[in-house]
Design goal:
about 190 residues; alpha+beta; Protein Transport Mog1p, Chain A; seven-stranded antiparallel β-sheet; three-stranded antiparallel β-sheet
Length: about 190
């Protein structure tokens, strides 16, 4: 009995801690940056949500760790007129080319989300801001819907002194939350029309 009681207390604490992190739902309905799309994504409650400063970032969610920052972003862009059929035929090499303007692209693969073809890729970004060199690792999922390009970004950014290997290790800490973010995507118009 003396051995079972501490084990029971330990298990109770583990279960309570696992359930203490709640998931928060974000709905883009009514946000002009969503360009008429109603999109739902979910994120952990300890990630702080804020509207993106740039014109196509609908919403971002950030979490500060002791040595790095992590972020998730919902981005929606209009496709050029009459380009939807061409863009829907994109292959992995086309996605790689589009994303290569952002950084070094790797691990491009095709997937499905909301019964839509989608692509997911890793991007390593070395960026200079205000004289400091910052390392980032982003994983991005992109898909087309209703003449819009929807991007879900999730990644980490390190301090200027951090190496690429450190940023890769930091990304491993948030990787499962990135997949939860991607898999939470709901395109509401698919179910209301």
């Amino acid at each position: 009995m003396k051995k079972i009681l501490p084990l029971c207390i330990f298990l109770m604490l583990v279960v309570n801690n696992a359930h203490s992190q709640t998931i928060v739902r974000y709905d883009s309905t009514g946000n002009p940056k969503a360009k008429g799309l109603s999109v739902i994504v979910k994120h952990p409650s300890d990630w702080i949500g804020a509207e993106g400063e740039r014109p196509n970032i609908v919403q971002k969610f950030v979490k500060k760790y002791p040595t790095f920052n992590a972020s998730m972003m919902l981005q929606i862009l209009n496709l050029p007129p009459n380009s939807e059929s061409e863009i829907k035929s994109f292959k992995a090499s086309d996605w790689r080319e589009v994303l290569s303007d952002v950084g070094e692209v790797s691990n491009v693969s095709k997937t499905q989300l909301e019964n839509q073809d989608a692509y997911i890729a890793d991007i390593h970004i070395t960026q200079e801001r205000a004289g400091l060199k910052i390392e980032q690792k982003q994983r991005v999922l992109g898909l087309f819907y209703k003449n819009k390009w929807i991007w879900l970004w999730c990644g980490v950014g390190g301090l200027p002194s951090q190496s690429r290997n450190k940023v890769e290790a930091d990304f491993k800490i948030v990787e499962s939350q990135c997949f939860q973010f991607y898999n939470s995507l709901v395109l509401l118009q698919k179910y209301t029309q």
